[in-house]
């Protein structure tokens, strides 16, 4: 309940934050929404000497639609994302995914950037970002770089972010065609971490063929996973029951679940990836065709 | 980086229910402890240590927050509304009245957080369905009521507030 | 009638123990064992003591305290009560066992200091499961408890061997009624202040029974009982876990004298999950004997009850008397035998948890009835109706020795079936037997024993004191009434219910009645709130005290009205005494009250003052009962279950406040469903509690909790002064098996017989795929 002592740093600009981080990277933690970091600090699992509060730095919270991409500031909250018309229209998997994170209070404060940096394999946002091919823009004193989502998720609680870097923005390509997404989450009770969850984003071209396929998997690996084989199974095809079944089967074979005394066996989670992928693809297909 | 940013204690001023409370606090002091122990407003309760139960829910700058999951120093300059700030001139807020009239509480421990979350929910969605309400309070745990009368209370409050 | 408690609770101006602030208060933190079983080799507190802001650090040898008493010493069970001290002396026996205590100027510093206490442990092998713990060669917790068997208790009625020998069908099953964590939203807390000039203590504590805490603190501390004032302020739920008198609580009281400052201790949730008592944890081997027409002839039960690392306050009585006495259920089962082995293990202590023994009994009975009906190919409704005790057979003494006083079990079942539309549901179920979403109907016809309890019977079971309840009803000269009750409500609403009783009996407005509870300095000795006794027994005492007061008032009224007392009648509706044959001549009860204090116009033999004190010892328990029906939809592909309908038909006698009665049904049902759907205290092999926070231990949220259709039958209890039965635990006693019966019913066409609670989606899925 009671964190260990730390010094509180409240930089007024990104530059100030990056300067402090540069010289204190091994003894600092960056604080955004705090809903992953502070629980860890209260358990004393994490005990940084310095906490750098970036939540008040202006210009890091936005959802912008551009010609070919959607840009979301790292400090944008789950609530802002789930209620955004832009996100619902172009990044439906993400809208639906973040709406199922934890509970309303957590969603008021937790940020997309925070979730991605925390890199919990059971984090819902990460699978959606994989399915949507999000690119992470990170900054340090030395400059800016962009990390593809396929490279972002390194290991459990370990992203590709370097200790002296801050994630500032996530950029999503605007998907052409009739695009829709879905996020189906199997949980013990409302607000729990997933037993297994699947993020799906697809797009249909003018002839009804699948021109975009993004499938992300939650809680069935050492990180969020992209079900690449499953994506390949449906890309360029008409989505009928047979193709969907094959994709679901592929996803269940690609995932790497482990036994968990509380949330279930690897065998069950694998079987559920198949069921959820099938159902999510069907739902996304319905939505892409104009249904709900 | 100025040396004063690295001092042990930090001065914070937080407005709670319209009154400003100023104190020098350790950065690690949780906001809920500032509210209860520094401001002396013990209506906001603590029911867990892992940000699950929601008993500590308050509004900060208009957004509902589990106050155990923020440091007081982060709330410097913010405006907070707690359960003690709802009733005006001795008159209960419609949500408080609805909980009373519909037996929406038994032991009362989860109640302040539940009411504050309902307050935020109804600001955002003045005409919720029962499902909206159940999802809207899914971050507030109650062990006594089975939630049925809490949902009834919130729907009754919504109706009364829409009528005003 | 709306609750008197609510204005303070909805405005956040209630006073819970953790809200109390005393000048100069210091903060207590326990250092608790991370090992389930270990020898303590050394403890070094020097670093902790040196930390700025630390007032003191103590270990066992610094504090002179007696062992923590077990207050329910069941007879004829070879009971062995191990010595368990507030601070571990040479050994720790469960993760969470306190080994040292820190006192500091603020709770953050106390937490820092606790980390600096260096304890050297020599880990020992641990045993967490009860059947493992009784095996030869298992780790032994105490030298004085061989094979970790704290007791072996038996109950027998009729001739079970003969019944099984002549049975047409025998159904056998093993049940695990899994361990649960009560999870009151308020964790435990103690604030204590020592007064050196009077050598006495004032203690605020999250207790369901302040006098019981006072009595047992007196034993642990070696302090005279009357030197302890124990106050339960607003208490945020208990569900049995705050009946227990804990060693850590006693130690906090003791610390107030050691450090000569007011002390404050608040239990973090993780601490609560480790060291507040858990519930249930039975392994049950059950056999049912029956005729081929469905008549049940015998029941045999062998239970291994996991009691945890020491015998908690009421622990021995819960899996024995409170469980086995109800093994007849609503049925005529002429031959019943139970054997219960109480086992100590390296886990948290187990004690009463909502229902306390009765949920365990009704769960196994209602599941066995369903298993029997499947075996015989009959409808579970038919088996129940065939075996029910009938209304006109009351009072009925069952084979376990209890005498049920009243009830119509068949009526409750029939009403529930009608409300839920049983026939139509069965038809729909047939239509959907191969659908993706399967339909299931689960029936639970329960009965329970509560309103604890008649002292002779209770003492016969080895309970430390009688289970009467006290009440003083005092009308002040101004006509207002104060009631001092030994009951200790913590959410149940008796500040309101009791005021209603007084209003009804004395004819005074509810607003003029105040109910004082929880403070041992203000109330007569009271036994507290648990076992659904507060309204039947606590309320009964109040009703009797009111009636005694009315009788005294009649004598005074007769004198004032210049007539004989036989001529005077009290009209509660008017709140006045009337002359029987001349009702215009009357005197109000308030006038009588004033006269009693003025004392110059009292009849001979009548003392001044207008109050009455009653200690009500009920002549019997009360037996609420009912039928709950749960309708579920099972997603055959994922194993997820959705409750489509939940119908509750309950008979708890007279309702003083119907709104509050229904609230108890809601809350009780959802807690039972929590066990069936979600909850389980999980230990790993080394004795580490995995479900140590609300992230891991899943209790129902608003989303999983169903809408409950609550209906009632009203059969007044014939012996209770108000006709009231209890209702605080009935929901929990009914609901778990209603849910499980429903899910098993949904899958019965696949040959599924049973699924272990909690019915996680995976367990349901496996049941489907195994078949």
From TrEMBL, chain B:
Organism whose genome encodes this protein = Candidatus Marsarchaeota G1 archaeon OSP_D
Molecular functions (GO terms): 2 iron, 2 sulfur cluster binding; metal ion binding; oxidoreductase activity
Q: Give the InterPro entries listed for this entry.
A: 2Fe-2S-bd, 2Fe-2S-bd_dom_sf, 2Fe-2S_ferredoxin-like_sf, 2Fe-2S_ferredoxin-type, Beta-grasp_dom_sf, Diverse_Oxidoreductases
Q: Where is the 2Fe-2S ferredoxin-type domain?
A: 10-86
- Pfam families cross-referenced by the UniProt entry: Fer2 (PF00111), Fer2_2 (PF01799)
Keywords from UniProt, A to Z, are: 2Fe-2S, Iron, Iron-sulfur, Metal-binding, Oxidoreductase
Q: Which domain of life is it from?
A: Archaea
Put simply, this protein is called: Carbon monoxide dehydrogenase
């Amino acid at each position: 309940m009671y964190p260990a002592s730390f010094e509180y740093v409240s930089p007024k600009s990104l530059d100030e934050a990056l300067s402090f981080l540069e010289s204190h990277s091994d003894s600092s933690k960056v604080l955004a929404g705090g809903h992953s970091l502070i629980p860890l600090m209260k358990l004393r699992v994490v005990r940084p000497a310095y906490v750098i509060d970036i939540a008040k730095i202006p210009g890091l919270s936005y959802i912008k639609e551009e010609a070919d991409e959607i840009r979301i500031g790292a400090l944008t909250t789950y609530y802002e994302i789930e209620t955004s018309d832009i996100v619902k229209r172009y990044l439906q998997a993400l809208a639906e995914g973040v709406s199922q994170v934890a509970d309303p209070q957590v969603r008021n404060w937790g940020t997309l950037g925070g979730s991605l940096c925390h890199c919990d394999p059971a984090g819902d946002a990460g699978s959606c970002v994989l399915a949507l091919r999000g690119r992470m823009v990170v900054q340090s004193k030395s400059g800016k770089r962009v990390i593809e989502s396929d490279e972002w998720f390194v290991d459990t609680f370990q992203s590709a972010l370097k200790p002296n870097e801050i994630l500032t923005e996530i950029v999503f390509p605007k998907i052409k065609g009739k695009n829709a997404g879905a996020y189906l989450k199997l949980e013990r009770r409302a607000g729990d971490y997933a037993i297994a969850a699947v993020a799906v984003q697809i797009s249909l071209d003018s002839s009804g063929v699948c021109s975009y396929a993004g499938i992300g998997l939650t809680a069935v690996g050492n990180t969020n996973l992209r079900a690449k084989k499953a994506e390949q199974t449906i890309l360029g095809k008409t989505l009928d029951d047979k193709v969907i079944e094959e994709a679901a089967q592929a996803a269940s074979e690609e995932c790497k679940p482990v036994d968990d005394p509380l949330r279930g066996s690897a065998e069950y989670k694998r079987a559920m990836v198949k069921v959820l992928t099938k159902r999510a693809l069907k739902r996304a297909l319905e939505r892409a065709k104009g249904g709900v | 980086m100025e040396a004063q940013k690295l001092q042990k204690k930090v001065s914070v001023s937080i407005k709670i229910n319209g009154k400003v409370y100023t104190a020098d606090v350790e950065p690690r002091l949780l906001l809920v402890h500032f509210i209860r122990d520094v401001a002396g407003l013990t209506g906001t309760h603590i029911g867990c240590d892992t940000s699950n139960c929601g008993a500590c829910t308050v509004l900060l700058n208009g957004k509902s927050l589990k106050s155990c999951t923020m440091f007081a120093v982060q709330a410097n300059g913010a405006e907070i509304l707690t359960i003690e700030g709802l009733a005006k001139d001795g008159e209960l807020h419609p949500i408080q009245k609805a909980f009373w009239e519909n037996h929406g509480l038994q032991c009362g421990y989860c109640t302040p957080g539940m009411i504050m979350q309902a307050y935020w929910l109804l600001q955002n969605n003045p005409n919720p369905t029962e499902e909206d309400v159940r999802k809207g309070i899914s971050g507030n745990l109650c062990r006594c009521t089975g939630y049925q009368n809490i949902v009834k209370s919130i729907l009754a409050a919504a109706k009364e507030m829409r009528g005003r | 009638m709306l609750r008197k408690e609510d204005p303070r609770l909805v405005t956040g101006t209630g006073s819970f123990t953790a809200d109390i602030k005393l000048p100069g208060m210091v903060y207590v933190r326990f250092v608790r064992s991370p090992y389930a079983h270990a020898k303590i080799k050394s403890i070094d507190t020097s670093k902790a003591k040196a930390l700025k802001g630390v007032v003191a650090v103590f270990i066992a040898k610094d504090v002179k305290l007696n062992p923590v008493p077990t207050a329910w010493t069941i007879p004829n069970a070879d009971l062995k009560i191990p010595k368990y001290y507030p601070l571990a002396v040479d050994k720790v026996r469960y993760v969470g066992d306190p080994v040292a205590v820190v006192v500091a100027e603020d709770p953050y510093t106390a937490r820092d200091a606790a980390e600096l206490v260096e304890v050297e442990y020599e880990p020992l092998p641990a045993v967490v499961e009860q059947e493992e713990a009784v095996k030869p060669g298992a780790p032994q917790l105490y030298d004085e408890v061989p094979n970790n068997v704290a007791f072996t208790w038996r109950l027998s009625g009729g001739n079970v061997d003969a019944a099984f020998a002549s049975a047409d069908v025998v159904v056998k099953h093993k049940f695990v009624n899994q361990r649960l964590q009560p999870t009151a939203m308020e964790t435990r807390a103690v604030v204590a202040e020592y007064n050196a000039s009077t050598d006495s203590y004032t203690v605020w504590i999250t207790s369901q029974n302040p006098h019981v805490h006072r009595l047992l603190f007196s034993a642990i501390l070696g302090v005279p009982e009357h030197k302890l004032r124990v106050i339960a302020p607003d208490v945020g739920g208990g569900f049995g876990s705050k009946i227990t008198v804990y060693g850590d609580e006693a130690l906090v009281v003791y610390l107030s004298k050691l450090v000569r400052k007011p002390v404050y201790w608040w239990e973090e949730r993780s601490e609560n999950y480790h060291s507040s008592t858990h519930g249930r944890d039975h392994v049950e081997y059950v056999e049912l004997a029956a005729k081929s027409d469905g008549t049940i002839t015998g029941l045999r039960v062998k239970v291994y009850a996991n009691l945890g690392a020491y015998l908690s306050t009421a622990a021995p009585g819960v899996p024995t008397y409170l469980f086995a006495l109800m093994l007849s259920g609503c049925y005529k089962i002429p031959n019943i035998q139970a054997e219960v082995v109480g086992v100590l293990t390296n886990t948290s202590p187990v004690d009463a948890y909502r229902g306390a023994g009765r949920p365990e009994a009704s769960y196994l009975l209602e599941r066995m009835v369903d298993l029997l009906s499947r075996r015989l190919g009959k409808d579970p409704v038919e088996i129940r109706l065939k075996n029910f005790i009938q209304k006109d057979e009351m009072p009925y003494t069952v084979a376990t020795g209890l005498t049920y006083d009243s009830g119509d079990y068949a009526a409750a079942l029939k009403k529930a079936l009608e409300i839920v539309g049983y026939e139509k549901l069965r038809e729909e179920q047939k239509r959907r037997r191969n659908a993706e979403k399967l339909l299931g109907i689960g029936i639970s016809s329960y009965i329970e024993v509560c309103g604890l309890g008649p002292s002779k019977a209770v003492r016969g079971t080895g309970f430390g004191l009688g289970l009467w309840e006290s009440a003083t009803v005092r009308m002040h000269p101004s006509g207002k009434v104060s009631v001092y009750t030994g009951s200790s409500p913590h959410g149940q609403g008796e500040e309101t219910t009791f005021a209603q009783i007084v209003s009804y009996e004395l004819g005074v407005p509810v607003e003029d009645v105040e109910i004082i509870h929880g403070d041992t300095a203000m109330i007569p000795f009271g036994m507290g709130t648990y076992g659904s006794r507060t309204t039947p027994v606590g309320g009964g005492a109040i009703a009797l005290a009111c009636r005694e007061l009315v009788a005294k008032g009649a004598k005074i009224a007769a004198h004032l009205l210049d007539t004989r007392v036989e001529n005077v009648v009290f009209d509660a509706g008017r709140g006045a005494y009337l002359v029987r044959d001349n009702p215009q001549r009357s005197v109000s009860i308030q006038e009588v009250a004033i006269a009693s204090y003025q004392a110059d116009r009292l009849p001979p033999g009548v003392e001044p003052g207008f109050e009455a004190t009653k200690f009500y010892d009920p002549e019997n328990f009360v037996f609420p009962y009912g039928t709950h029906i749960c309708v579920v939809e099972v997603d055959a592909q994922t194993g997820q279950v959705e409750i489509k309908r939940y119908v509750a038909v309950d008979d708890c006698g007279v309702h003083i406040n119907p709104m509050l009665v229904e609230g108890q049904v809601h809350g009780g049902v959802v807690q039972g469903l929590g066990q069936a759907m979600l909850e389980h205290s999980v230990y790993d092999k080394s004795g580490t509690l995995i479900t140590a926070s609300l992230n891991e231990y899943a209790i129902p949220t608003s989303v999983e909790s169903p809408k409950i259709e609550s209906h009632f039958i009203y059969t007044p209890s014939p012996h209770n002064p108000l006709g009231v039965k209890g209702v605080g635990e009935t929901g929990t006693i009914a609901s778990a098996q209603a849910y499980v019966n429903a899910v098993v019913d949904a899958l019965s066409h696949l040959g599924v017989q049973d699924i272990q609670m909690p019915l996680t989606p995976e367990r349901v899925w496996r049941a489907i795929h195994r078949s």
